[in-house]
């Protein structure tokens, strides 16, 4: 017999996978010139930021679902602003890639996420260069190169946009730890939207005014309110589904769900968008890259569990998690799945994993562990 908590956990995982895949396909459909034909990725991202920020404002200030944290100008200027800048950049470049390359190929390129994050973490001093991890990163890179070589509709511009977005996201993840760790600031999903979404909106306004606003003035495209409202609503729902998943599972389960979601998304994209052709070389390259990612995950989980005493029970582990969370500085920025999926196994690694048990075994709790925030700290507003 499957217990009710376990059943609810699987239900949350299913909702997360469906929403994550659906939002990415929805964004591709909206942006693609062959379908809805709204080729303005910055505008779409600004709609998401504005909607998420407005909802967060009402939840914090009007309905008082959560209380705002003590945010001084110094913390906002030195932490929130730079993190928001890289977050906005990652969404901007990631969404722009939809105009040039297929969803399937984008998911394959996202296997580079742990490589980029690991390199940034080593450069910033939050992680050490290790031979075993480095070899996995080389394996991932080789797999992505093979997958790119096998791409029929390879586009240099789209690939550059996607890789640039990955680098920006890696910098955001590392800066999240480096900058906020010194401040002792911890935000939940609602308060992180409350502070980061408006700031990201402002950063996006500048490139929007210079690049897209002149084109929109002469464009014949009509704004469909219900299309964009439903798109932003799905993105917001995805953020809260990530919160529920983290509260029910550990980082390992989320990573496994991310792998499953990536394969489902690649398969669905070829059905929804027939022009997205997958070759055998694509699959072989992605499989090689995925092996490197899985091995990297295994090393991280092994390190975490080796740091714990064998006699530690669940209560002791939860107590440790609580103490570490009190010191944690990770700001929770949910997966950018609404714009570009950051919740996958490739996009959720942050090279700064804490010494916390990665698999709190399906304990019904709403508390976000430090490792949980780090692993899904995307994919995303």
How would the blueprint of this fold be written?
Elements: H1 4-31, H2 41-62, H3 73-97, H4 103-109, H5 113-124, H6 131-149, H7 156-181, H8 189-218, H9 225-248, H10 251-272, H11 280-306, H12 314-327, H13 370-376
Q: What descriptive keywords fit this protein?
A:
disordered C terminus, 0% strand, mainly alpha, single chain, globular, 381 residues, 13 helices
Number of strands: 0
Tally of helical runs = 13
- Listing every helix as H and every strand as E from the N terminus to the C terminus, the arrangement reads HHHHHHHHHHHHH
Mean of residue pLDDT values:
79
| Structural class by secondary-structure content | mainly alpha
What does this structure look like?
This protein is mainly alpha-helical and 381 residues long. Helices cover 69% and strands 0% of the residues. The protein has 13 helices and no strands. It starts with a helix and ends in a 5-residue tail after the last helix. The C terminus is likely disordered.
Short description:
The chain is mainly alpha-helical. Helix content is 69%, strand content 0%.
């Amino acid at each position: 017999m499957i217990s009710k908590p376990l059943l609810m956990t699987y239900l949350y995982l299913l909702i997360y996978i469906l929403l994550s895949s659906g939002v990415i396909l929805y964004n591709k459909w909206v942006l693609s010139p062959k379908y809805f034909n709204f080729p303005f990725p910055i505008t779409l991202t600004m709609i998401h930021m504005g909607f998420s920020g407005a909802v967060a404002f009402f939840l914090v200030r009007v309905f008082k679902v959560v209380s705002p944290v003590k945010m001084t100008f110094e913390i906002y200027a030195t932490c929130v602003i730079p993190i928001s800048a890289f977050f906005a950049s990652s969404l901007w470049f990631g969404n722009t890639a939809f105009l040039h390359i297929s969803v399937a190929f984008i998911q394959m390129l996202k296997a580079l996420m742990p490589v980029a994050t690991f390199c940034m973490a080593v450069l910033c001093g939050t992680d050490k260069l290790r031979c075993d991890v480095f070899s996995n990163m080389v394996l991932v890179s080789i797999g992505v190169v093979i997958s790119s070589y096998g791409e029929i509709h390879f586009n240099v511009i789209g690939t550059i946009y996607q890789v640039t977005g990955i680098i920006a996201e890696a910098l955001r993840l590392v800066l999240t730890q480096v900058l906020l760790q010194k401040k002792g600031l911890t935000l939940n999903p609602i308060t992180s939207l409350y502070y980061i979404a408006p700031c990201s909106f402002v950063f996006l306004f500048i490139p929007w005014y210079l690049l897209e606003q002149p084109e929109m003035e002469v464009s014949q495209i009509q704004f469909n309110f219900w299309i964009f409202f439903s798109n932003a609503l799905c993105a917001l729902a995805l953020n809260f589904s990530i919160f529920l998943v983290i509260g029910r599972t550990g980082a390992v389960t989320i990573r496994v769900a991310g792998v499953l979601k990536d394969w489902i998304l690649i398969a669905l994209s070829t059905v929804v968008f027939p022009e997205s052709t997958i070759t055998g070389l694509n699959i072989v390259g992605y499989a090689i890259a995925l092996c490197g990612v899985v091995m990297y995950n295994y090393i991280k989980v092994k390190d975490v569990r080796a740091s714990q005493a064998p006699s530690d029970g669940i209560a002791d582990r939860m107590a440790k998690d609580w103490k570490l969370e009190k010191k944690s500085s990770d700001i929770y920025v949910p997966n950018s799945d609404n714009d570009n999926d950051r919740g996958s196994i490739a996009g959720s690694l942050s090279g700064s994993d804490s010494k916390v048990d990665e698999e709190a075994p399906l304990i019904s709790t709403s508390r976000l562990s430090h490792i949980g925030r780090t692993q899904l700290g995307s994919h995303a507003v």
